[in-house]
């Protein structure tokens, strides 16, 4: 038996990973994954949380400096990116994979790979890439506007990331209830700009902390964070809150 999926009027929006599941009720289903590629010009995807970047450095009143180590460092650069750094990200829709050059104002100077600057292009799925620039030991003079110029055989585009001083994290947005039972909830939200230092969050169901623990803290690392609330009663499910913080301030 053969099953065929036909897509008409193919466009860049159709590029991605498709999965075919075959199940006749006997044994485990058979699964096949197919990547659909279609050449199209690069396009910078606007993502609010990555429109700005800040160093992971925090200076207190006594002028002492502490550094929060990022959990998002690419495997290719784990031995290079240590200590104080800033991480700039451009999200790119393109196929085939784009060539990326980083520039900065003034005069749109092209940044040379090595030394203070290290870059990587990470494939998320067919048609979607992250271009990441690590700026090592950033100083005040490094603050400003940076640009990722991307191109492939079909076209080109340019995106902008502002490198600013460390600040408090932005509020999360778009809270969503993904699933609910009589004793549990699963919620998600969209992460905002982290302010530079790694951010944590504390989530609470009404006035009771989860699972009898005095507090529960996790590190946000993704676009969306799906959190299960278990062991709840009907009264506890009336109100949920999420508070973000980094070493500078809460939001």
TrEMBL record:
Which GO molecular function annotations are given, in alphabetical order?
axon guidance receptor activity
PROSITE patterns given for it? IG_LIKE (PS50835)
Q: Specify the domain of life of the species encoding this protein.
A: Eukaryota
Q: Where is the Ig-like domain?
A: 55-152
State a GO cellular component annotated for this protein: neuronal cell body
Among the GO biological process terms of this entry, one is: synapse organization
Q: Cross-referenced InterPro entries, in alphabetical order?
A: Cell_Adh-Cytoskel_Orgn (IPR050958), FN3_sf (IPR036116), Ig-like_dom (IPR007110), Ig-like_dom_sf (IPR036179), Ig-like_fold (IPR013783), Ig_I-set (IPR013098)
The UniProt entry, under Pfam families, shows: I-set
Keyword terms:
Disulfide bond, Signal
* Family annotation (PANTHER family): CONTACTIN 5 (PTHR45080), IG-LIKE DOMAIN-CONTAINING PROTEIN (PTHR45080:SF8)
According to UniProt, the name of this protein is Ig-like domain-containing protein
Organism in which the protein naturally occurs:
Schistosoma curassoni
């Amino acid at each position: 038996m053969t099953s065929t999926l036909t897509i008409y009027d193919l466009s860049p929006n159709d590029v991605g990973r498709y999965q075919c599941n075959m199940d006749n009720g006997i044994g485990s289903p058979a699964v096949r994954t197919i990547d659909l590629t279609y050449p199209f010009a690069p396009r910078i995807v606007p993502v609010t949380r990555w429109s700005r970047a800040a160093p992971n450095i925090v200076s207190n009143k006594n002028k002492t400096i502490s550094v929060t180590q990022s959990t998002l460092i690419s495997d290719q650069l784990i031995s290079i990116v240590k200590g104080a750094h800033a991480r700039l990200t451009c999200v790119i829709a393109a196929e085939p994979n784009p060539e990326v050059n980083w520039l900065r104002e003034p005069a749109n100077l092209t940044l040379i790979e090595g030394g203070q600057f290290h870059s990587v292009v990470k494939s998320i799925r067919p048609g979607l890439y992250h271009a990441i620039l690590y700026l090592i030991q950033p100083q005040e003079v490094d603050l400003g506007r940076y640009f990722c110029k991307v191109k492939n055989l079909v076209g080109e585009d340019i995106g902008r990331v502002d490198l600013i001083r460390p600040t408090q994290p932005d509020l999360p947005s778009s809270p969503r209830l993904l699933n609910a039972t009589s004793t549990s909830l699963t919620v998600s939200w969209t992460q905002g700009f982290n302010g530079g230092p790694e951010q944590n969050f504390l989530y609470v169901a009404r006035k009771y902390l989860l699972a009898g623990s005095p507090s529960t803290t996790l590190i946000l690392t993704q676009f969306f964070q799906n959190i299960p609330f278990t062991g709840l009663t009907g009264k506890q499910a009336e109100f949920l809150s999420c508070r973000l913080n980094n070493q500078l301030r809460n939001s």
